[in-house]
Hints:
This is Glycerol-3-phosphate phosphatase (GppA). InterPro entries: HAD-like_sf, HAD-like_SPP, HAD-SF_hydro_IA, HAD_sf, PGP-like_dom2. GO terms for molecular function: sugar-phosphatase activity. It is a single chain. Helix content is 38%, strand content 19%. With 242 residues, it is of the alpha/beta class. The protein folds into 2 domains: 10-32 and 98-241, 3-Layer(aba) Sandwich (Rossmann fold), CATH 3.40.50; 34-92, DNA polymerase, domain 1 (Orthogonal Bundle), CATH 1.10.150.
Amino acid sequence: MPSAAATESFSAATKEYAFDAVLLDFDGTILDTTPAVVKFWHSIASELGIDPETVLATSHGRRTLDTLALYDTSKANWDYVSSIEARIPREFSTNSDVSEVPGSRELLTALQKAGARWGIVTSGTRALISGWVDRLGLVRPSMLIAAEDVHVGKPDPQGYLLGRKQLGLRGDESSVLVIEDAPAGIRAGKAAGFKVLAVKTSHSVEQLRAAGPDWIVEDLRSVSVRGVESGLVKVEITAAFM
């Protein structure tokens, strides 16, 4: 049987859905900061005397706190993590080190203008997200669940469940769309009981499908906001993977 990569087709018909809220991951979903993160981990690994390639193999989609705990527990504290993550937008943010995922700026702006319930649920710290938002002039989320706000990171659903609560939504009575790029985040969204749209920015279709999302798209140009009615945000999804 041919692999998904050999037969993939982003050609599903356009459909509109209604949700109480939209929750988005940040790195890999809104921004592609892979070159910046690679430089960051090479710098930190050098300072700590550990192999950067080993660290990079275990860090994507995982909180920096949890990654550091694997190698140096003395550094696995929020004061240290926040201080080093704050360096990323300042020290590793040349034009070649960070790029916006196509359609991300437009989607955030549309959610804000429509008055939709939305927010960011990320494995990054508040210092990191604030730094990128300021550096690039992105819409600032009114609701942010950052790494230090949860006891357990993705794929545990704690962050997404907390995000729903912070938006004032009740459990079984609400419908939430999660937008993610990494298998750990997809699994977190599904474990929370939410619909999940995966963006093919950092992983292959096979890797994304294995995590069980409801849709896979190439980038956020396939997701648009059609307005808010009776508190529900209308989201149009086009050219999803078939």
